[in-house]
């Protein structure tokens, strides 16, 4: 732990690092350091130590890494010449707006795009019906490069395309529980499209210029629930890759080598006894248990949740009508921290809360892990190469309509009307102290193969992912410009890896150095079976699959309460 002397030294170092650190920022960092410094040593937490960075704040990004080449020019020209096909695929997947594990039409559309580009496609990767692997090879002895494609939407984020105020495209008219349909509030329609386009452009360049390479595109299901890639990595799907290129829609055009939070997703099921709401004595309300758990878990925040941690929950089954005491209730949590080891400590506390809620409500509680991922392993050398390509290509070519929509979307929630991010962000070192944030199932890939991630501006400055405003942009003018730019950034960087073996070697050397003290092991529990939905017959026929896959139990175990009414004690004597 940091004592006062250590904190003073840390303060001096922070203040000497440059004027960009405000007094408030320094205090934030010190507050986080007090609970995280002890676990950054390799012998205490190897995962956090491997992701640590000692780059000085005065860092300047190097030049001369990304090189022009005939192959790179061919790839960029292919993307430019196929812009209408690329934006059409983005629009098609946006229209589908299919939820995790059920991306029937979207996965087929993306696979067809790659088949047309000369890739061999096999569906059913890791047993997931809507996951596929598309492979292109030319020659022998070249690098094996991977691209990441996602295409799942989010529930409740339906929004009409290009509309600057909240206007759900699909409104669920239920007189008791109105709501909205799904929507691409994280921009995955563009994510998968840009990655597929980059892979196709690299294949075209390899053919034309006779460059030995194997390009593998992984169509990944269920990113929004962090299930698809974490499980696929545990099944060895990404073995044999030399490098992996990833991107995600963002509010800025930038890359870096910071880490992400590790995460475990867990669902708690409470089982009680149903009964008439008008005669409730003896009933056991599972909803009461879920509410108690939610309330008690909030008390973890002050003394058990570090600045690097996150804890959020939703009651996804709380009953149907007030006049029936809910016999079954489910509450789901995302537990996030800086490493899998730190996640486990917080998760154990959440599980203890569930047991207390079950005991207090006299209900039976069980829990199941639905997904779990590591924190992302950074690659500084990979980010430097990608950043230079981004600078050389330039920001997305946003038309005036993109900025107009962005300003409308900023005005709607009361944000400054700054439009779209129309420049390439500076490459800067990560924060000296990890303060937490989002999670990604790409993280597990990053511990098995050198991985780079970047963001391209699809949503307006100041807005957030997982919102209806992002869904409005994803296949409108902002998203259509971003998808083309992202494809160029990825393709150009991949071509450098092929034509400059020294760049790829430097990236792989950094990876070996960072992972030398870490033995990656999936954070998923032993015996884990991923959740799945049975596909429609037409989908199985079209993709050549059979149901069920051999890695799950089907049908799943039924969850049925066998609990008994609670006792009220001996009968009272009659009143006279």
Largest sheet: 7 strands, mixed
Uncertain stretches: 1-42
What structural category do the secondary elements indicate? alpha+beta
Computed Rg: 25 Å
Strand order of the largest sheet: 1-2-6-3-7-13-8
What is the helix fraction of residues, given as a range?
25-40%
Oligomeric form: single chain
- Overall geometry: globular
Euclidean distance between termini CA atoms: 69 Å
Strand proportion, as a percent range, falls in 5-15%
Mean pLDDT: 92
Number of helices: 18
What is the tally of beta strands?
A: 13
Topology at a glance:
Blueprint: H1 4-16, H2 23-36, H3 46-50, H4 70-81, H5 83-96, H6 104-116, E1 120-123, E2 132-138, E3 144-150, E4 171-172, E5 179-180, H7 188-209, E6 213-220, H8 228-234, E7 243-250, E8 254-255, E9 262-271, H9 286-298, H10 301-304, E10 310-317, E11 328-337, H11 340-361, E12 364-373, H12 380-393, H13 400-411, H14 442-446, E13 451-457, H15 468-474, H16 477-499, H17 501-515, H18 537-543
Parallel strand pairs: 3-6, 3-7, 7-13
Antiparallel strand pairs: 1-2, 2-6, 4-5, 8-13, 9-11, 9-12, 10-11
């Amino acid at each position: 732990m940091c004592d006062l002397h250590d904190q003073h030294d840390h303060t001096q170092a922070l203040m000497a690092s440059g004027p960009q650190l405000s007094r408030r920022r320094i205090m934030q960092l010190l507050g986080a350091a007090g609970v995280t410094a002890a676990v950054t040593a390799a012998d205490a937490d190897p995962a956090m130590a491997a992701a640590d960075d000692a780059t000085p704040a005065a860092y300047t990004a190097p030049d001369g890494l990304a090189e022009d080449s005939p192959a790179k020019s061919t790839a960029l020209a292919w993307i430019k010449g196929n812009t209408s096909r690329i934006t059409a695929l983005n629009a098609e997947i946006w229209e589908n707006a299919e939820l995790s594990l059920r991306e029937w039409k979207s996965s087929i559309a993306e696979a067809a795009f790659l088949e047309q580009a000369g890739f061999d496609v096999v569906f059913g990767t890791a047993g997931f019906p809507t996951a596929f692997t598309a492979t292109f090879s030319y020659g022998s002895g070249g690098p094996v490069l991977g691209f990441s494609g996602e295409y799942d939407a989010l529930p409740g984020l339906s929004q009409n395309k290009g509309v600057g105020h909240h206007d759900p495209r699909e409104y669920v008219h239920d007189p008791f529980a109105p709501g909205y349909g799904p929507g691409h509030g994280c921009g995955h329609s563009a994510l998968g499209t840009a990655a597929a386009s980059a892979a196709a452009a690299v294949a075209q360049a390899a053919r034309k210029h006779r460059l030995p390479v194997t390009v593998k595109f992984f169509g990944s299901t269920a990113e929004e629930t962090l299930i698809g890639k974490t499980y696929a990595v545990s099944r060895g799907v990404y073995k044999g890759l030399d490098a992996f290129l990833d991107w995600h829609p963002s509010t800025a055009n930038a890359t870096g080598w910071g880490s992400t939070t590790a995460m475990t997703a867990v669902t708690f099921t409470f089982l009680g006894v149903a009964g008439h709401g008008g005669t409730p004595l003896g009933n056991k309300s599972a909803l009461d248990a879920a509410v108690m758990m939610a309330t008690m878990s909030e008390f973890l925040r002050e003394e058990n949740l570090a600045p690097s941690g996150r804890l959020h929950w939703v009651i996804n089954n709380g009953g149907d009508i007030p006049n029936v005491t809910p016999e079954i209730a489910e509450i789901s949590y995302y537990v996030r921290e800086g490493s899998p080891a730190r996640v486990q400590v917080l998760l154990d506390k959440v599980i203890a809360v569930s047991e207390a809620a079950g005991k207090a409500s006299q209900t039976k509680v069980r829990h199941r892990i639905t997904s779990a991922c590591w924190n992302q392993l950074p690659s500084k050398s990979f980010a430097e190469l990608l950043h230079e390509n981004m600078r050389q290509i330039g920001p997305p070519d946003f038309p005036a309509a993109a900025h107009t929509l962005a300003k409308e979307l900023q005005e709607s929630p009361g944000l400054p009307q700054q439009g779209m991010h129309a420049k390439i962000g500076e490459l800067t070192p990560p924060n000296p102290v990890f303060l937490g944030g989002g999670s990604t199932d790409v993280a597990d890939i990053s511990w098995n193969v050198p991985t780079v991630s970047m963001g391209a501006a699809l949503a307006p400055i100041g807005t957030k992912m997982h919102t209806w405003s992002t869904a409005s942009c994803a296949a409108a003018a902002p998203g259509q410009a971003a998808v083309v730019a992202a494809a160029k950034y990825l393709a150009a960087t991949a071509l450098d890896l092929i034509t400059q073996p020294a760049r790829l070697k430097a990236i792989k050397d950094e990876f070996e150095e960072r992972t030398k003290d870490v033995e990656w092991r999936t954070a998923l529990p032993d015996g884990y079976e991923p959740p799945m939905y049975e596909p429609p017959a037409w989908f199985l026929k079209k993709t050549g699959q059979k149901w069920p896959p051999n890695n799950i139990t089907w049908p799943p175990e039924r969850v049925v309460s066998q609990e008994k009414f609670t006792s009220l004690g001996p009968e009272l004597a009659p009143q006279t």
